[in-house]
C-alpha cells in the first residue's frame, strides 16, 4: 500500500518532525538536496550545464542546497532567484548564504540559455493560488527550453491537493518528491506534468499522517491479489452469485451485452438480463450463457420478482431516460434489498429526479459516474469537480452513504468514512464507447460474489485498467475496443491468480 498526502497533510508531518522530534528544518533540507543530486547522478542526467530556478519558500531553499552540492562537485551551476526577497524563509536565507560562500553567483532573473538540465525549485506543495505575472512568464520560458526538466518535490504550478494546474505548471521529465507521494502527482492533469516520480525518504515522520483516514492511498500491482474473492474446488454456480442486469434499450443491446459478459468474466455465477424485447435475439446469439428476460410493456410485478431472485443488481447502462426507464429505476430503488450498482442512464435519471436519492434503501450501493454524470448529480461544474474532486467526493459519499467510483483518467474510489483510493492502471486507449459498461459489469460481477462495494470498486477498477494496459500492448493506442477489455480481463485476473498460487505452493 502506498499513501498519497495533500499539501496540508504533508506540512503537518514536516512540522511534527521538526517541532516534536527535534530534527532541524535545515537538516531535512540538506537530506532533500542530497537525494535529488543522487537521483540526477544515478539516472545519468546531463549535468554539464545545470540551471536551478529558486523561489522564496523552502522549496527554493532545497534548490539552493542542490546548487551548492552540484557546485562542490564541479558542475558549472547557473542559479536564478525569481522569488520575493522580503518573503524568503529563514532556511532559504541560510541556504543562499551557504551557496554564496562556495563562490557561486546568484542572478535575480531567469535568462533562457543552452542549459543541459533545468531544475525547478520555485513553488512547493503549499501553493494554492493561481500563478500570474513574472512567475507565469518564467515557468513558460523554462518549459520552452530544450533541456531535461527536473522538479523538486512537485512541479511548480501543480496543486498538491488535486492535481489541478494553477494557471501554468512546470513540465517535468522527472520529479523527486519527499517522503510521500502527493495526491496531485497521482491525478491528472498534474500527473501528466510530473514525468517519472521518485519518492525519496528524507526522514520526515509520517506515522500520524498515515493514521489519518483522510490520507488517500493506492496499491502496488502485486497487492490486488489479496482482494480476489475465493473460489473453492467443491463449488457450483450458485455459490458465486445471481446478478440481475437491468440495461439496454431499443438499439442499445450492446450495453447489456458488455455488462453481462464482463460480469461473467469477473467470476459471477449466474447473470440474468432484463431488457426490451428488441434485444432478445441479439443477446441470446452473442451471449448464450446469460438468462435473458425481456419486456414490451413495463410489468412492475415481474420486475419485483426478478429483484427477489437477485443477489446483486446492476442498473442503468444504455437503458435511456424514457418514462418507462424512469418507472423501472423507481421500482428498483423502492424494492431493493441487495447490493446494487447504478451506472450511466440510471445516474442521469437520478440527476433529473433528485428525490430518488432519498429512496436508496441501504448503504450497499455503488455508483460509477464519469465527470459529466457526476456534474449532473452534484450540480457542480466539471471544471470545479476536477479542481476539488477529493473534497467533493468525501462530502457526497458521506451525505448519501454510498460508494462512488468517479471515472476519469485517474479514477478515484470513495466510500463514507474510508480512505479514498486512487487508481493507477489504465490508459488513453480505453477512451472508447462501451468501456464504462465493461467496468460496471466487472464491479457488479465482483459484488455478486460477496465483495463489499468499496473493495469491488477498487479491484474492479484496477482490473479494468490493467486489461486496458494489456490490450494496448498488443493492439496499440488507437485500436482498443470495449470488447477487447473483456477479452484481456482474463489475463488481468490470471496475473493475480498465479501470484496467489505462487504463495500456496
Description:
The structure is a single chain. This protein has a 9-stranded mixed sheet, sandwiched between helices. Strands 4-3-2-5-6-7-9 form a 7-stranded parallel sheet, with helices on one face. The chain has a 3-stranded mixed sheet with strand order 8-1-10. It starts with a strand and ends with a helix. The protein has helices at residues 7-19, 25-42, 58-72, 90-101, 133-144, 183-186, 190-194, 207-211, 253-265, 280-286, 300-309, 323-334, 345-352, 371-378, 382-400, 435-448, 453-475, 482-504; strands at 2-5, 50-54, 78-81, 106-107, 117-121, 148-152, 174-178, 181-182, 196-200, 216-218, 242-246, 270-276, 291-295, 312-315, 340-342, 365-367, 403-406, 412-414, 421-422. The relative contact order is 0.09. Strand 5, helix 5 (133-144) and strand 6 form a beta-alpha-beta unit. It is elongated and about 85 Å long. The protein folds into 2 domains: 2-218, YjeF N-terminal domain (Rossmann fold, 3-Layer(aba) Sandwich); 240-504, 3-Layer(aba) Sandwich (UDP-N-acetylmuramoyl-L-alanine:D-glutamate ligase). Helix 2 (25-42) crosses helix 3 (58-72). With 505 residues, the chain is α/β, with parallel strands linked by helices. The mean pLDDT is 96. The longest helix is centred in the last third of the chain and has 23 residues, at 453-475.
Amino acid at each position: 500500500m502506498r499513501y498519497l498526502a495533500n499539501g496540508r497533510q504533508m506540512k503537518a508531518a514536516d512540522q511534527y518532525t521538526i517541532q516534536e522530534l527535534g530534527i532541524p528544518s535545515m537538516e531535512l533540507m540538506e537530506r532533500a538536496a542530497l537525494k535529488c543530486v543522487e537521483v540526477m547522478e544515478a539516472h545519468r542526467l546531463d549535468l554539464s550545464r545545470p540551471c536551478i530556478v529558486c523561489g522564496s519558500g523552502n522549496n527554493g531553499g532545497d534548490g539552493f542546497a542542490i546548487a551548492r552540492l552540484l557546485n562542490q562537485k564541479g558542475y558549472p551551476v547557473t542559479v536564478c532567484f525569481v522569488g520575493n526577497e522580503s518573503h524568503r524563509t529563514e532556511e532559504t536565507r541560510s541556504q543562499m548564504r551557504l551557496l554564496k560562500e562556495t563562490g557561486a553567483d546568484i542572478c535575480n532573473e531567469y535568462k533562457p540559455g543552452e542549459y543541459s538540465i533545468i531544475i525547478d525549485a520555485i513553488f512547493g506543495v503549499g501553493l494554492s493560488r493561481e500563478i500570474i505575472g513574472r512567475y507565469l512568464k518564467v515557468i513558460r520560458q523554462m518549459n520552452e527550453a530544450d533541456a531535461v526538466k527536473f522538479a523538486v518535490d512537485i512541479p511548480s504550478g501543480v496543486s498538491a491537493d488535486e492535481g489541478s494546474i494553477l494557471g501554468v505548471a512546470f513540465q517535468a521529465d522527472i520529479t523527486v518528491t519527499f517522503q510521500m507521494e502527493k495526491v496531485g502527482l497521482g491525478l491528472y492533469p498534474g500527473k501528466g506534468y510530473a514525468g517519472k516520480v521518485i519518492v525519496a525518504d528524507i526522514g520526515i515522520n509520517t506515522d500520524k499522517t498515515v493514521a489519518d483516514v483522510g490520507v488517500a492511498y493506492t496499491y502496488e500491482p502485486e497487492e490486488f491479489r489479496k482482494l480476489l474473492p475465493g473460489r473453492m474446488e467443491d463449488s457450483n454456480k450458485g455459490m458465486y452469485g445471481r446478478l440481475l442486469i437491468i440495461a439496454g434499450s431499443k438499439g442499445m443491446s450492446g450495453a447489456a451485452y458488455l455488462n453481462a459478459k464482463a460480469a461473467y468474466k469477473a467470476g459471477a455465477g449466474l447473470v440474468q438480463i432484463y431488457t426490451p424485447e428488441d434485444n432478445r435475439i441479439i443477446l441470446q446469439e452473442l451471449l448464450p450463457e446469460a438468462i435473458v428476460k425481456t419486456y414490451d410493456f413495463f410489468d412492475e410485478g415481474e420486475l419485483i420478482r426478478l429483484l427477489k431472485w437477485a443477489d446483486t443488481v446492476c442498473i442503468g447502462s444504455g437503458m435511456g431516460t424514457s418514462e418507462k426507464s424512469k418507472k423501472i429505476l423507481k421500482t428498483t430503488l423502492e424494492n431493493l434489498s441487495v447490493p446494487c450498482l447504478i451506472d450511466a442512464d440510471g445516474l442521469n435519471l437520478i440527476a433529473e429526479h433528485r428525490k430518488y436519492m432519498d429512496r436508496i434503501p441501504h448503504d450497499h450501493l455503488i455508483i460509477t459516474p464519469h465527470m459529466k454524470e457526476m456534474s449532473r448529480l452534484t450540480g457542480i461544474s466539471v471544471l470545479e469537480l476536477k479542481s476539488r474532486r477529493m473534497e467533493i467526493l468525501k462530502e457526497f459519499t458521506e451525505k448519501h452513504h454510498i460508494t462512488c467510483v468517479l471515472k476519469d483518467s485517474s479514477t478515484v474510489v470513495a466510500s463514507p468514512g474510508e480512505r479514498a483510493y486512487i487508481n493507477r492502471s489504465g490508459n488513453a486507449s480505453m477512451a472508447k464507447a462501451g468501456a464504462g459498461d465493461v467496468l460496471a459489469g466487472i464491479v457488479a460481477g465482483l459484488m455478486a460474489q460477496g465483495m463489499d462495494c468499496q473493495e469491488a470498486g477498487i479491484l474492479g477498477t484496477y482490473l479494468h485498467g490493467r486489461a486496458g494496459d494489456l490490450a494496448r500492448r498488443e493492439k496499440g493506442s488507437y485500436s482498443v475496443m470495449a470488447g477487447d477489455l473483456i477479452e484481456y480481463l482474463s489475463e488481468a485476473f490470471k496475473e493475480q491468480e498465479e501470484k496467489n498460487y505462487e504463495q500456496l505452493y
